[in-house]
Amino acid sequence: KAGVTQTPRYLIKTRGQQVTLSCSPISGHRSVSWYQQTPGQGLQFLFEYFSETQRNKGNFPGRFSGRQFSNSRSEMNVSTLELGDSALYLCASSLVPRTSGKDEQFFGPGTRLTVL
Amino acid sequence: AQKITQTQPGMFVQEKEAVTLDCTYDTSDPSYGLFWYKQPSSGEMIFLIYQGSYDQQNATEGRYSLNFQKARKSANLVISASQLGDSAMYFCAMREGTNNAGNMLTFGGGTRLMVKP
Lengths: 116, 117
Known about the structure:
The complex is a heterodimer.
Chain A: E1 5-7, E2 10-13, E3 19-24, E4 31-38, E5 42-50, E6 53-57, E7 64-68, E8 74-78, E9 87-94, E10 105-107, E11 111-115
Parallel strand pairs in A: 2-11
Antiparallel strand pairs in A: 1-3, 3-8, 4-5, 4-9, 5-6, 7-8, 9-10, 9-11
Chain B: E1 4-5, E2 10-14, E3 19-21, E4 24-25, E5 32-39, E6 46-52, E7 60-61, E8 64-69, E9 74-79, E10 88-96, E11 106-107, E12 111-116
Parallel strand pairs in B: 2-12
Antiparallel strand pairs in B: 1-4, 3-9, 5-6, 5-10, 7-8, 8-9, 10-11, 10-12
């Protein structure tokens, strides 16, 4: 079974630009969550999508947005990039509802965004 | 207050020895899940083990086991027979509520494990 895929793996942008990152979850997984990882703030939750609806949102400004398509693939968009947006962006997919007692959330390899 | 605390920023362990990575958590929700992830230098987060708040037994997955002490709100990861490939960052994370309500994970600051040959 294929894992979570994220594209692109690396991005370099300049301040003020916008960027779109993509995440394809594991087949059959309908929940996709996004996280930002920086050396200073660690891993922080951005938002979660389930069945094309955002059902949880972290404490990030409105410049960060996302969506989910009917095939469960998700995109996140960051507009008006700032230097502080440089980070590793990770997405995770999960099977909802669980079919066993064990919960698993699988992460993709991440997209490393550098803002110059 | 921190919801997930990992008090060991870095640790060394001798190859083939066991090591325990500490994690304490804080929640008032009776239903929650605890996760451990490994993040090598490549950046990918690798799922290791899961413990549900209502699970009666400690979770085990191969060389990984979770020492779950609910009353103390601790969920320590035990790695037996350390290997050089275990050198990485390790993160403890918590999901509050059932996953049918949401999958948001709160992460600790991580522990960098270095395995010595």
